[in-house]
Amino acid sequence: MMSRPQKYIEGEALDSQHAKSNNALKLRVAVLVVCVLLVSALVVTYLLFEFLKTREMLRNLELKQKNVKADVTERLPEMKPCSTVQPTCPEPEVKIITQPCNIIQPTTPQPTEITTITQSYSTISTTTPQPSEITTDDPCYKCEDGWKQHGENCYYFSTRKSSWNASRTVCRTQGGDLVKIDSSEEQSFLKTTIQQITGRYEIYFWIGLTDSAEEGKWLWVDGSPLNERLAFWYFHEPDDWTEEDSDGEDCVRMRATWFDKSCKAHERSICEKPAECDFTSVLEQQ
């Protein structure tokens, strides 16, 4: 049997070495590619984490800045003269005094006791103070215990939290409704009372204003439209924010200024109703 020439044997050995060298090179390249991909994935993950972390920090800073601006804006009016913060209040009407007078005065002869009361009340009516003289100390106007009197109205500052609609129901069961703000002087009274009750401006109270019927058309609970000259919105409010409630913010809460809020949110509330004239106490003073 003939053996293969020596030069063929050496050639086959050299080819085998080249093949092994190529395989080793391919393996090293594959390992390098995998390492590069892993490093790239780690870098992308780190950059994404840093981006999310930075965005969260910026959001927190924006919220803090908004809160600081709110506090500064709301406390600034307290440093101004009273003539600036509290404009001249429109003269109140005397409807609550004059209307009962027409009801009590009889048109037919009455028993002696009722006639005496009527005559006494007639004397009071002739000396009724002019609108500019009416004060919250007028003995004719009375509010129930727990209600705060201001002019001819009584106000109840409820610390129980509930939705706007539930708060309104509670007010109506007490003979009133969520407060309607008719003047700068009334707004100032409510703001001051909130600060006295809570000791700070961070506590919100529902008021009787909503645009739930038509977006952007703000109506009071009695159906009257909002007078924009007597609107006390906070900066950039109302904004109808939808991140907490997809239905937006259709009801109004206040502290020193007004903010729109989802009607489903639970807040404290302010009820309002007319003060009643206590004729008995008036006659006892005669």
UniProtKB/TrEMBL annotation:
Top-level taxon: Eukaryota
TM region positions: 29-49
Keywords of this entry: Disulfide bond, Lectin, Membrane, Transmembrane, Transmembrane helix
SMART domains per the UniProt record, alphabetical: CLECT
InterPro entries in UniProt: C-type_lectin-like, C-type_lectin-like/link_sf, C-type_lectin/snaclec_domain, C-type_lectin_CS, CD209-like_CTLD, CTDL_fold
Keyword Membrane set for record: yes
Protein's UniProt keywords contain Transmembrane: yes
GO molecular function, one term: carbohydrate binding
Record protein name field: C-type lectin domain-containing protein
Species in which this protein is naturally found: Oreochromis niloticus (Nile tilapia)
Lineage: Eukaryota, Metazoa, Chordata, Craniata, Vertebrata
